[in-house]
Amino acid sequence: MKAAARALARGEALLSRAFGQAGNPFHHLGALCIYCFWIALVTGIYLFVFYATSIEGSWASVERLTHGQWYAGGVMRSLHRYASDAAVLFLLGHVLREFVRGRYTGARWFSWFTGVPLVWLVLWFGISGYWMVWDQLAQYVALSTARLFDALPVFTDPMSRNFLDNASLSDRFFTLIAFIHLVGLPIFLVLGIWFHLLRIRLPRINPPRALMAGSLLAMLLLSLLQPALSHAPADLERVPGALALDWFYLAIFPLQDGIGALPTWLLLGGATLVLAALPWLWPAPRPAVAVVHLPDCTGCGYCAEDCPYGAIDMVPRTDGRNLALQAEVDAAMCVGCGICVGSCPSSSPLRRQQPLHSGIELPEPSLQWLREAIVAPPPGPQPRILLAACACAAEAARVSDAGVVALELPCIGLLPPAAVDYALRSAGFDGVAISGCAIGDCLHRYGERWTIERVARERPPMLRERVPRERLSLSWNKRGEEAALARAIAALRASLQAQERGHPGGPA
Ligand code: HEM
User: Fold this and answer.
1) pLDDT tens digit string along 435-457?
2) Per-residue pLDDT tens for 405-444?
3) What is the mean pLDDT of residues 38-62?
4) Nearest atom of ligand 1 to the alpha carbon of 108
5) 373 in the Ramachandran plot: left (φ > 0), alpha (ψ -120 to 50) or beta?
6) Residues 340, 399 share a domain
7) DSSP characters for 101-145?
């Protein structure tokens, strides 16, 4: 899995060169999926205005839209098709990426597990959409769906009976399909996505604007170059001719043609069960969760504000001190990133207390460990640099560079700004290099962003004014981008040497 994560990071690093880290589409796959649903919703409303909900009228009304007003209705139809296809592509990418990065297990089981029904919802969204055109493809899809359901003991009368001949189908049936596609499934999808994101604080549901504009433009171009077209009208008394399948949504039907309906259910059902059970079938070791050290908790609430998984609540004080609130960690929701430690204003390694505690901390790595690591830079060539890197840059953090002391943290958000102050002003380091995941792609969602804001004094706890910014460097790299980190350290070293020679100005 580590090798897959590394390969993924390398591929994504290439994309970051083209799009920039913040605009890399791989960093926004879930949000892109939602964006595609928005496009499908808006275009779907337009199409429905002109759609005739009847056996006779549906195919003709779609034809009129496609050819009669190709510049509006036709483009809207194609956009509707391509946004739906893109949603599947982004969804597959999202699932694979979360899996490869190990974000499916432990406290994250909830997001994973609640994502699984969304796959089925999206699939039926697409399938029911193809029915509405009532062309030969719709006929194939309708008959195949009926055969699929007939294999289950759900309906007393076989569903396929509705499709024996043209006379056995009624307009009411189309009203039902339109209701499912336009009202029923969207409601379930919105509820499903809401549930999916329930345990995620500040979920990123919108991709960056440039990415939205770019993907819309790409779909628009595709719509103009390759408009979505219908097949000949459905005729239940004839066997459909050659069909152009949409493999994103309709692949299960050729599968059913090949292996039969019941084996298709068994295969799909089995795959769904395995997918849903993956957090328990292939668990990762559970990291140590954050614990509150009440004597040092002032109830400020910064940790609850910063926790990316909503694992911390502020509750009434229980220790009788004259303070209103205290932090409380829900161990089942904590991913052990330590971002709360970095946000605790009492995480100051400057204090002389032994053993050192802060209001909230991880048992491993402890604040005591952090102070001991910083306390004395090794004797050696100057300038002496403290490298604080997140575990994703673990290989990078193991640099064997004379003059560099590397700290490997679960997440860069664990680094309290006071530790930087201490390293530069008291411990004797000449510079501090901070390195975390690529912008917008922190493994723990907000570690890199909170760190940037704390250093820029935009978010508490802020790096103190007195800390010389020219002795700091911030670099954001993916796993496997050791070379970029090495360049950042080299640039900091060169800048520190220049400052030493009396030419100030640095990389921060
Ligand atoms: C309609 C389909 C889906 C949409 C629109 C969607 C969207 C999203 C969004 C917006 C996030 C939050 C990203 C962030 O702010 O960091 C997210 C997180 C997540 N999704 Fe999905 N998702 C979908 C389906 C799935 C499926 C099928 C799975 C897996 C089976 C899945 C697994 C996850 C996991 C594990 C996370 C949490 C990652 C973390 O812990 O940071 N999602 N999803």
Assistant:
1) 999 999 999 999 999 999 999 99
2) 889 999 999 999 999 999 998 888 999 999 999 999 999 9
3) 94
4) 40
5) alpha
6) yes
7) TTTTSGGGHHHHHHHHHHHHHHHHHHHHHHHTT-BHHHHHHHHHH
Q: Is 123 in the pocket of ligand 1 (CB under 6 A)?
A: no
Asked whether the predicted pLDDT for residue 503 surpasses 90, the reply is no
Structurally, the chain folds into a number of domains equal to: 2
pLDDT in tens, 314-368: 999 999 999 999 999 999 999 999 999 999 998 655 555 666 788 999 998 888 8
- The pairing of strands 360-361 and 291-292 is antiparallel
The answer to whether the beta carbons of residues 392 and 443 sit under 8 Å apart is: yes
Q: Is the CB of 445 under 6 A from ligand 1?
A: yes
Beta-sheet pairing, 404-409 with 325-329 = unpaired
Structure confidence at residue 351 (pLDDT) = 55
Within this chain, do residues 320 and 396 fall inside the same structural domain, yes or no?
yes
Give this prediction's pTM.
0.93
Residues 263 and 388 in one domain: no
Q: Residue 166 is which amino acid? A: N
| 113: its two tokens | 């597990």
| 226 φ, ψ (degrees, to nearest 5) | -135, 70
What does the block give as tokens for 316?
């009434």
Q: Which atom of ligand 1 is nearest to the CA of 98?
A: 35
**Phi and psi at residue 14, to the nearest 5°:** -65, -45
Range of the domain at 272: 22-281
Residue of 98, 191, 439 to mutate, ligand 1, most atoms within 8 A of C-beta:
98
Short-list 71, 123, 84, CA closest to 227 = 71
Ligand 1 contact, 31 CB (< 6 A) = yes
pLDDT at res. 395: 63
Question: Cα(203)–Cα(310) distance, rounded to whole angstroms?
Answer: 11
Same domain, 342 and 261: no
Joined together, the tokens standing for residue 504 give: 């100030």
- Is the Cα dihedral 172, 176, 179, 181 positive or negative? negative
